[in-house]
Design a protein that fits this description.
The chain is mainly alpha-helical. The chain has one domain. The protein has a two-stranded antiparallel sheet. Strand 1 and strand 2 form a beta hairpin. Helix 3 crosses helix 5 and helix 3 packs antiparallel against helix 6. The protein is globular. About 5% of the residues have low confidence. Keywords: Membrane, Transmembrane, Transmembrane helix.
């Protein structure tokens, strides 16, 4: 048994040692958000609020993927490509959630299951805030403060989560 495991162990050590350092924080933020979303149901967080964060997570993945594709071919930096990738990622995620029964069918908001509603709202908010942030940066030629993009994105998702929490607990 040890003879069979040893080559995999050596390969793992080699891959671990040969990894190049990452000089950007965005992939780590995206991975951290994904891990956090995994535990939300275990903590009892409402599916609609979890959906908001999943929608924003999908947006971050789509924009990150567009940037990777754009590094290889400038054609991928077109806004229409970004919208296409964003929509594709969102629809693929929603489809897979329904396909593998990850959507709990106990309650709806405006005719949508809670998780789907949250994902759509989170995606729309994240996209609109990114467009607003891009417009502000282009108009002024700079960011107004360090980490402006992160602050705008994160605060918009937090405010959306609070808004949905109030909507669910006091109006629906």
């Amino acid at each position: 048994m040890a003879v069979l495991i040893m080559p995999f162990f050596i390969l793992f050590i080699f891959l671990f040692i040969s990894v190049t350092p990452i000089y950007a924080h965005c992939p780590l933020c995206v991975a951290g958000a994904g891990v956090g979303l995994t535990f939300s149901r275990l903590l009892g967080i409402n599916d609609s609020i979890t959906g908001v964060w999943i929608g924003a997570f999908i947006g971050a993945l789509a924009f990150w993927f567009q940037r990777i594709l754009g590094a290889k071919n400038k054609l991928f930096f077109k806004p229409s490509t970004g919208v296409f990738l964003y929509t594709l990622f969102l629809l693929a995620t929603i489809w897979s959630f329904y396909k593998f029964d990850l959507v709990a069918r106990h309650g709806e908001i405006f005719g949508f299951h809670k998780l789907t509603f949250g994902m759509v709202v989170g995606s729309i908010v994240y996209c609109l805030v990114d467009l607003l942030n891009t417009y502000i940066k282009r108009k002024s030629g700079k960011s107004f403060f360090p980490y402006q993009s992160i602050v705008f994105s994160l605060s918009s998702i937090v405010l959306t989560s609070v808004g949905i929490y109030i909507l669910i607990n006091y109006y629906i």
